Structures are given as C-alpha cells and as structure tokens.
Amino acid sequence: MINRLKVELCGIEMKNPVILASGTCNFGKELNEKFDISKLGGLSLKGLTLNAHCGNSGERVFETASGMMNSVGMENPGVKKFIEKELPRLNQIDTLKIVNLGGHSKDDYIQGIELLNDADIRIIELNISCPNVKSGGMSFGIDAKSAGELVGDIRKICKHKLMVKLSPNAKDIVELAKACEANGADSLSLINTVQAMAVDIRKKKPFFENVYAGLSGPAVKPIALRMVHQVCQNVKIPVVGIGGISSWEDVVEFIMVGASAIQIGTANFANPHTAIKIIEGLESYCEREKLKNINEIKGII
Amino acid sequence: MAKIISNKKLNEEHFLLTIESENNAKMGQFYMLSLNNQKMMLPRPISIYDRTEKQLQFLIKIGGEGTKELSELKENDFIEIQDVCGNGFPQVAGKIALVGGGCGIAPMNLVLKELKAYDKSSEIDVYLGYGKEAFLVEGFKPLANEVIVNIGGYIIEDVDFNKYEYIFVCGPNIMMQKLHEKAKANNSNAKIYVSLEKRMACGTGICLCCSTKLKEGNKRVCKDGPVFLSDEVYYD
Fold it and tell me: Which terminal residue of chain B, N or C, has fewer Cβ atoms less than 10 Å from its own Cβ?
C-alpha cells in the first residue's frame, strides 16, 4: 500500500504531516496509553527550559468562544532531566520527536542547545514566542533583528536541525520569518498563541495572575492561515502550520497555502483522539482526490 | 457517543444526569463530558455520583454556560465522553467519615457503596453540608452508619475528629482547608484524603493547566489526582 501522506521535513521523512503541538502532548506518555502514538507524523514535545520550571501560579486556563487561553508558563523538568528521564523512552517510539526549547536569556538558549547537542535527537523547535513567561520567551520573537541574532548565534553551535516557532504577536511576521531564514533556520513553525486577556468582573481583576495569556483554538485559525500563507510566499525553507486546526479540512487548507506539515494543539484537549481522526480523514481525502501524495496540493494557493 | 437515559432537575442549581456507557470506573474518578457545541470545545470534568457496569450517573451543579447546556440534555440525546480519568479514593476499611460540601457530595455516594462492598463491617458516617437546601440525602441512609446533614452552616463543625481512622472530603477549598486545620487542632489520627477541584483543559495530564503545587512538587489534579492525602496539600 502506498502511503499518500508521507512527507519530508528538513530532510527527515515523516509518516504523515500531522504533528502534535508543543504543550499539548506533554512527553507523549499519557497519549500513548490512549492510542499508538507511532501513528503520528511527529510530536513536538513539552517546551523545555535549561533549568526546571514550576510554571505560573494562579489559574492557568480560561475557555473562550471557539478557543481557550492558557497561562501554564513553561512548567517543565529542565533539559538535563528530559534527556535522562524522557528521551530514552521516546526514542523507542517510531515517530519524529521535536524537542521544543525556550529560554529567559540568550545564555539559557545557548546552554540548553549545548546540552542537547549530544542527545539522540534530530530536530529542535526554538521557542521564541511563548507569551507566558515574564522575561525572554516572546520578547526575542517580536522583533526581526533580535530574533535573527538569536537564531544566528544558536545556528553556529547547534548540531541538530533548527525549526523556529514564530509568534503572531511579532511586529511583522514576514520580516521575522525572513530574518530567521537568513540566519540559518532550517524550518519555521507558526503560529504560537495570540497574546490575549480575560477579566474576572466579580473580583474586578484580570483573570490571570500574569494579566495576559495565550489564546489558541479554532478562534485563531483564520489569522494563522493568513500568516502561514504570507510566510510561505516569502521564504524557501519548509513551514509547519499551527493554529486552531481541529479537522482534516483545516489541514488541507494549511497545506494548500504552503505548509509542509501541521501541528494540532488545542483540539488534543477537546479530544485526545483528534489527531488520529484527522490522519484517517486525510487518507480518505487523498484517495478521493486521487492524489499520489498530499504534497500535490502543497502551496497551490 | 453515550446516550442520555435521564436528566433530572433536583433544584435550580443541581441536576442528576444518567447516561448509557459501559465502564469499570472506580469511586472518586471522573469523566470529561463534551458539549455538542462548536463554541465550547473543552470537555467538562464531572465526578461520578453512581454507576453500574452499563450506566454512569453524574450530580452536576450549573456553574456556567457549559454545565447549563448539560442540564438541558434530554432523554435519548447523545454526548461524547472519553475514558475515565483520575486516581480515585483508596480502598480502606474501618471507622470512616465521608464529608461532602455542596456538589462535593457527588463522589461520596459511590465511595460509600464501594467501601461497604469492600468491607461490610466498616462503620461509615456521612456528613453532608448544603448551602440552601438538602438533596439526595435518602440515598446515603441504607448503607451509612449515620447521615449528618447541615444546611446553611459549617458541616465540619459536626465532625468528631477523634472517632475515625479515615476521613474522605470533597467540597469547596475553604471547607477542605478548615477541616484539615480542625483535624490537626484536635490531634486527630485520621488519615485525610481530599478530592481537589481545578479548572482543566484536557483531563488526561497533557496540558498542565490543573497543575497544583503540593509538598512533593507540582502534581496534575486530573492525572495524579484528584484525590490526594490532605497532608500533601498546601492550603492558602
């Protein structure tokens, strides 16, 4: 049987273009209890920082119309513990593992990359777009110049493929994307969550302790699609589309505007089996449309 | 998809939803109930009030738009539910108090049944605290040693902390905190287990939205809990 969904990302073959987004699949263990995660194209693992981080205090989730806001704040075990405790198990599973790395300072990123250089991984997703940490995080990802510099410095020392995750809160998403490409990014993923706010009218206070949080889900999909389209028109490196994807039709839209692969996030929370349903939907779609490979529709818009 | 068998209004705020679903759920566990609504995509975490092998029953309080929609489900409607979630209460025997506040009485019904099935010689007192009016009290009476009801006051004032080996609690955070403090003040030897409530997105342990700081570090209420030893919890 031919696999019509087989795609390639940065020279790495994937079973299909469906990746679970960072922060929506932890390190794969819980979902593997529910279904065989090796059926996925890949997993972008829970965002790491150099040192362990306990995340934000206070409420962390708020539902919005067709979406949700989160203020998890990069709770994670740190790079070293990840390499010791999570990676050996993950490497037994035949799917692409993408290691997501964030940081509070340039030094954090550099040291994190150095630790990961010797680890048995293939691709790093550089998170310069998390709106939920007070310092660093998204601040690197707003401005093309600072993002370009950071990516350039990391590229010099990083042994693995480098995917940069972009923020929709950037001043100019196209300039940002071009700066990352010019400084050696192998791939781009977008969009991270949209900075947003909720108010508790009874307490007369912001709902989140951090005041602002990240909005995701179908509510942001049209914005994500527009940004992925714009970026794909302006860079040559592969782009991974993210933002409110919850059906196979959504995936087809992202591929048509130029995405090489996609990530599913919030929809995993609504139903952990979403990704599998989407993969099945894409297979039937290719068959119906008589596509030998899903790539045939890539970038046709 | 699960079929609705019945949906019974208990009062203005509470209702009892019964659905058809094969399960082997245990006391203190919960389900994520999805809404048939594009606008609200996150499922609602709801603890199990009662069960048989083929049915699940949930006691639900209308807290917002999502639970209001669940209250409007009719017989023969369908809802999507996922696998059972959470750790549940431990199987213990002896002198036991079950303390529920408001909708927190929900898990105690199944707890009482399962603990009595586990060891029928266990002596189990049930304390039910209500804000305005009592409901579902009769259901506890056949198996409980005694059922103590408090309406409009503080149910924990009624608990004899030196009588029990185990106390299971579910209710508002402030009630669980006061119970913990009172047990300490009374030098109670009871092992206290609390069922925590937190806003959740996934219910499967992947989002870390319900992560809570306990004495041995962050724990996910949905996956590591919702039941924890009260001594492990920071009350603030």
Answer: C
